[in-house]
Amino acid sequence: MELLPRSPGEFGSARYWDRFFRQRGQRPFEWYGAFPELCPVLHKYVRPRDKVLVVGCGNSELSERMYDVGMCEDIVNIDISDAVIRQMQERSGSTRPKMSYLLMDMLQMDFPDAHFQVVLDKGTLDALLTDEEEATIAKVDQMFAEISRVLQVGGRYLCVSLAQAHVLKKAVEYFSQEGWVVRIHQVASSGDKQQFVLPVFLYVMTKFRKIPGSAPQILEICLEEQDKPIRMESAERLVAAVKDRQHYALLCSQISKTPCREQVSLDLCDKESGKPRYTLHVVDSPSVKPSRDNHFAIFIIPQGRETEWLFGTEEGRRQLAASAGFGRLLTVALHREQHYEGMAGIQAELSGKVMELAPPGLPARQQVPFLSVGGDIGVRMVQHCGTSPLSGEYVVEDVKGDGSCYFRRLIFLRNRNVVQSEARLLAPTSLQGQKKRRKDKKKPSPTEPPGAIDKSYLCCEHHKAMVAGLCLLGDPDALPGELAVLVVGLGGGSLPLFVHDYFSQARVAVVEIDPSMLEVATYWFGFSQGDRMQVHISDGLDYVAKLAAEAPAQYDAVMFDVDSKDLTVGMSCPPSAFVEKPFLQKVKSILKPEGVFVLNLVCRDARLKESVLATLRDVFPLLYARRIEGEVNEILFCQPSPEGQRDSAELGARARALEGALRQPGRPWDSSYALADMLQAVHIL
Fold it and tell me: Could you say which of 226, 250, 274 is where a domain stops?
């Protein structure tokens, strides 16, 4: 039995629908959206005394169910198929006396103007608007005009639809331009998701008198799990929001049937603000043998630790999932702009949503555990928010690390998953008292005392490697002696501070293009200037060029730790102009003959990285490289003379000698500063 049309145009043909319903017989045909799913939304917009028109009724049970539950009885159903109208008259005529079925074309209705309070359409618009040809659009315009004519002011056009992009766009644009209020509901699904994947939507178009001029459009979306609608600023944003829900439904369907070959990432947004609240990663571990209790688990990443390698990289999450011993692990990162009511609150908020991402084969009613480090959601306190014309929006935040340590971080919000600068706190009193004030949503004042910074501690592994590279300078027995060091890129100031404090005769010049960063480093990270530490607010390119022209060969070490503002390039540190050959030749010229140029390179583009390395080799005869484990960073040590080449044994001896000189009685020294270990993995390029 062939029920499908030969062409989309047959959906508008009475002959096709007569044949369809004769062949199908008495069985009700529901395009999508059964009554139990639609009822919670329909009852908000259909009142018992309303006069309701159902266009393109077919043999759906929707009108009958509405009648039977007392939602509304004065219902007129129309369709262009004589066969289905006869069928429905026989089926409902005697049992539902106030409801009628009429043979009528909705494009040319016989009803007087303003005759109905509600027009209900279940799939009819979708069936008519099969393409965007001129003839099709003309029919849709005629349909909308007739619906508008027969509706009273204040009446509602309720359209059940799959919300294909061109269908939704047409309906939203037409009625919003007519001055109607447009609201889109996502219908909660209770049907067989294996059979029907796409979510169903209900358009609610409320008729208002058109106001001359440019009255503001009222466009809203109401998602299945909430009652409060969200206002959208444009038709484009409304269509995009619906598209996001459709993509999410397809994703859930896909990963509920088959394991994920690659990690899946998605954001769950706050219902009121629309801003991301949770970032989820779905990680499957094929090596884990499934049993009843290890199918699925949720891992809440403590606040402030989402940038750590274990949680912030694909390989780290893969190892986390394997060590946890679950076939599918869903990691959940918490956003700094949001407020959370502890682990129990997060679990209550996420329990329903995360089950939509459950793996195939999960036993029915299986309890899914929520995991975390230490059993809590961590601690994060935003101490300061600011905006810089050069760096954009940024935050200074205090977080609790692994164990009892607390850290202060500088984050540029344009790249919010990267810690720009970090320092360990000595006295985190404000953080320790945060839990008592958790319900106080008032932001901390930027004038509060920032807390003591542990200036002896380097948090970043690449900073430790950069310091270790100073052992390449001259006679190791003379270190740490008088040194002239140029650091390009201030950040929080921890690298130049460490060089200044531990190399007690060093003169450190810092170049920073952004004056806002000097303020942040000074107030929030304990940075200070003095006789041996000077900051120059300048573009590093201009500053080095000026030095090369006026005072060459004056620095023992030049260190570049400067980020790129251009996120479209596959190299985030340094900006590409800093590794062009003419500029690198200027860097070489300001170095002393036995000096060292230390570069923090962060490059994900393999071809671009090879090009940078080739340029460095052209300029500097001697080039060492040190990869930072678990990170993209690679530290390059460049020397202007090939005569200084040293093997790994000599490098280790020089590093141990430098470490011994730096470790003085009464001066704190962390065990992780094993400079020889830092240079073990160094290789010559």
Answer: 250
